[in-house]
Design a protein that fits this description.
Layout: H1 2-9, H2 14-26, E1 43-45, E2 48-50, E3 54-56, H3 67-71, E4 77-83, E5 96-99, E6 104-107, H4 116-125, E7 131-136, H5 145-156, E8 162-166, H6 181-197, E9 204-208, H7 214-226, E10 231-234, E11 255-258, H8 262-276, E12 281-285, H9 291-300, E13 304-307, H10 309-314, H11 318-333
Parallel strand pairs: 3-4, 3-13, 4-7, 7-8, 8-9, 9-10, 10-12, 12-13
Antiparallel strand pairs: 1-2, 5-6, 6-11
Helix pairs in contact: 5-6, 6-7, 7-8, 8-9, 9-11
């Protein structure tokens, strides 16, 4: 059905099409998919076993409206947000652009969401049926961004399976300053102090930029190891790498996601994996639209994989298709479980 509808959907403004997809999931217009479960792709993270390493990246379900519907499509976990303390509209429209020839998106949404109060109430009323991550960030006009993270942490600390500290969106001015050593240290220590004060064991993930130098990767790795951060999400979209793109929308300002970022993401994943090893788990994001691309992420060092743009181009069956494809790859390679191939590719 998606193959039939796609030409019509792609004639609609991307943000409008996304709203239609959310409403279709919300009101049951997209049927659940038969999930092919296999011990080969079972894995665990944050002390929870999940049937698949494939998850939905933050940005798709910004306001935590359809996470349970996404579990029904075969995803092993879902991350909602980014959520800020106060509701905000984000940047002016148009702010999402398709690059069809490049199988990519450029967005400059700017953390548009309904705010942590409303979103937390929604999650309380709709208990997650699987592993749910909540991605948090500061308001654009905030005078104290660290305090914004703390506000959201307090609101979601008892509702999420894990909380992601988003320091990497290219669409919130100066947010990426948190990649600097002193700023990142201050942020993480504040987060961990609040977590300790709350007597919480909530796992913390940090979502980083793909636009890092090797020197930055080394420094960030050490900070995360020193602070015993459980997970790194690699990576967000990039505001660079437009040179090889074909579609005219490549000139739009914003974060680039999809196939053009796949190899960049894999390289950064591998760099981090070579530094942190098994001490910190990696969730790989960027250009995932098939079993092969998901497998490459895991070979590069990711334990789990997320996608968003891939679903725009491949449709709602993408998780089930990737799961089936991964099972076949592992069977052909004689591998018992997906965890056995994490990080086997030493350089990308």
């Amino acid at each position: 059905m998606f193959d039939i509808l796609r030409p019509f959907l792609f004639k609609i403004n991307p943000e409008t099409a996304h709203s239609l997809a959310i409403n279709a999931l919300k009101f049951g217009n997209i049927a659940s998919i038969k999930i092919n479960k296999s011990p080969r792709i079972e894995t665990s993270i944050f002390n929870e076993k999940i049937h698949s390493p494939i998850g939905v990246a933050a940005g798709f379900d910004k306001n935590a409206e359809v996470y349970n519907s996404l579990f029904n499509l075969g995803f092993g976990f879902v991350e909602v947000g980014t959520v800020t303390p106060k509701p905000q509209f984000g940047n002016p429209r148009p702010r999402v652009f398709r690059l069809e020839e490049d199988e990519a998106l450029i967005n400059r949404l700017g953390f548009n969401n309904q705010g942590c109060e409303e979103i937390s109430l929604r999650i309380k009323k709709n208990q997650p049926k699987g592993l749910l991550g909540i991605n948090i960030g500061p308001n654009k006009d905030s005078s104290d961004r660290i305090e914004d993270y703390i506000t959201c942490l307090k609101k979601f600390i008892n509702l999420a399976s894990y909380i992601t500290i988003n320091i990497s969106s290219p669409n919130t001015e100066n947010l990426r300053d948190f990649h600097k050593t002193s700023e990142l240290n201050n942020l993480i220590k504040s987060i961990l102090e609040e977590k300790n004060n709350s007597n919480s064991s909530i796992p913390i993930a940090v979502k980083i930029s793909p636009d890092l130098s090797s020197n930055q990767v080394e420094k960030i790795s050490q900070i995360l190891i020193d602070n015993k951060i459980e997970t790194i999400i690699i990576s967000n979209s990039t505001d660079r790498n437009r040179e090889s793109l074909t579609n005219m929308n490549r000139f739009e300002k914003g974060g680039l996601s999809g196939k053009p970022i796949e190899k960049i993401s894999n390289r950064i994943i591998n760099e981090f994996y070579n530094l942190v090893g098994k001490q910190i788990k990696i969730i790989g994001v960027g250009g995932v639209d098939s079993a092969k691309s998901a497998y490459e992420k895991i070979l590069s060092g990711a334990t789990l994989v997320q996608l968003y743009t891939g679903m725009v181009y491949r449709g709602p069956r993408i998780a089930a298709q990737i799961n089936n494809g991964l099972i076949k790859i592992l069977e052909q390679e004689g591998i018992n479980n997906i965890n056995d191939v994490i990080g086997l590719k030493k350089s990308t």
